[in-house]
Design a protein that fits this description.
It is built from 10 helices and 9 strands. The protein is α/β, with parallel strands linked by helices. The two termini are 29 Å apart.
C-alpha cells in the first residue's frame, strides 16, 4: 500500500489524513485558491516543522486525485482503509518504522509547522505518551495536532472496538484510558478557540479564501493570523455559527 518510501531511518513523522469524500463539502482538500489546492497550502505550512510528512489517504479509486496531488507536491503517501482510520495510521506507522506520530488533518490549510515543532519539543520534554493542543482548546480550530507514541497507537489499534474510536484514531488513548497513558495538553496563553480556520463547509472555505487572497496569510504564522482575525470581526462572523461535528456524529 505504501507507494513511496519515506526512508527507514525516520522515527518521527507527521501523518496527515486526506480523502475526497466529505459529507458537508466534497473534495474540499482539492479546492483551489489562487490556483493552488488546500492540500498544497497544508503541506507547504506543515513543512515549516522540518519534520517528515506522509499523506494517509484511502485505497478507494475516488482518492486517486489526492495521490496525483501528492506526486506533484513530492510528498510521500500511504493508502489504507477508508473507515478504519485508526488502522490506516497504524499500518502507515508500522510500515515506515515510525516511533512518534504527529497527527494532523488536511482540512486545515493554515496549519502552522512552527507550532507543531513547539508541540513536539514539549512532548519530548514531558516524556508523554500523548500530547495535543485540542484537549482543552485555546488555539483556533484549524491548528490542531496530536502527538503520540507508536506504543499508544498499537494499543489503540489492538483494543479499540467502537466505530468512533476507529474513525477518529485517538479516542481510545485520551477518552477511555487516561490511566494507561501519560496525557498532556499544550495550551496557548491567550484563548482564541472561538476562531475557526479549518474547512468543513462553504462558509469555512470563504473565510480561508479571504484570508489568503486579501491578507496573504499563507505566508504568515498563526499569531499574525490571529491578529488579523482580532482586527476583522466581519471575517470571523462568516463562519462563527458553524458547529463542529461532535465525537461519534
Amino acid at each position: 500500500m505504501n507507494e513511496i518510501s519515506v526512508g527507514k531511518d525516520m522515527r518521527v513523522s507527521i501523518i496527515t489524513q486526506a480523502r475526497v469524500a466529505s459529507t458537508r463539502l466534497a473534495a474540499k482538500v482539492l479546492k483551489t485558491i489562487k490556483g493552488k489546492s488546500l492540500l498544497a497550502y497544508h503541506i507547504q505550512r506543515a513543512r515549516w516543522s522540518d519534520l517528515p510528512i506522509i499523506v494517509a489517504t484511502t485505497v478507494k479509486e475516488q482518492d486517486e486525485p489526492i495521490v496525483e496531488e501528492c506526486k506533484i507536491l513530492e510528498v510521500p503517501f500511504f493508502r489504507g482503509d477508508e473507515c478504519d482510520v485508526l488502522g490506516r495510521y497504524y499500518h502507515c506507522a508500522r510500515e515506515n518504522q515510525i516511533d512518534t506520530i504527529i497527527r494532523i488533518t488536511s482540512d486545515c490549510p493554515l496549519i502552522d509547522g512552527y507550532l507543531i515543532r513547539e508541540g513536539y519539543e514539549e512532548y519530548k520534554r514531558l516524556n508523554a505518551d500523548y500530547l495535543s493542543n485540542s484537549i482543552e482548546r485555546t488555539f483556533p480550530r484549524g491548528l490542531d495536532f496530536e502527538i503520540f507514541s507508536f506504543r499508544a497507537l498499537k494499543l489503540a489499534y489492538e483494543n479499540a472496538k467502537e466505530l468512533p474510536e476507529r474513525e477518529h484514531v485517538t479516542p481510545y488513548i485520551w477518552k477511555n484510558n487516561p490511566n494507561l497513558f501519560e496525557i498532556k495538553n499544550f495550551s496557548s496563553r491567550l484563548n482564541k478557540s472561538e476562531y475557526r480556520i479549518t474547512v468543513d463547509t462553504d462558509k469555512d472555505f470563504e473565510v480561508i479564501k479571504i484570508l489568503i487572497e486579501d491578507f496573504g496569510v499563507d505566508q504568515k504564522g498563526y499569531k499574525e493570523i490571529i491578529e488579523i482575525l482580532d482586527s476583522h470581526p466581519e471575517i470571523v462572523k462568516i463562519n462563527q455559527d458553524i458547529k463542529q461535528k461532535d465525537y461519534g456524529e
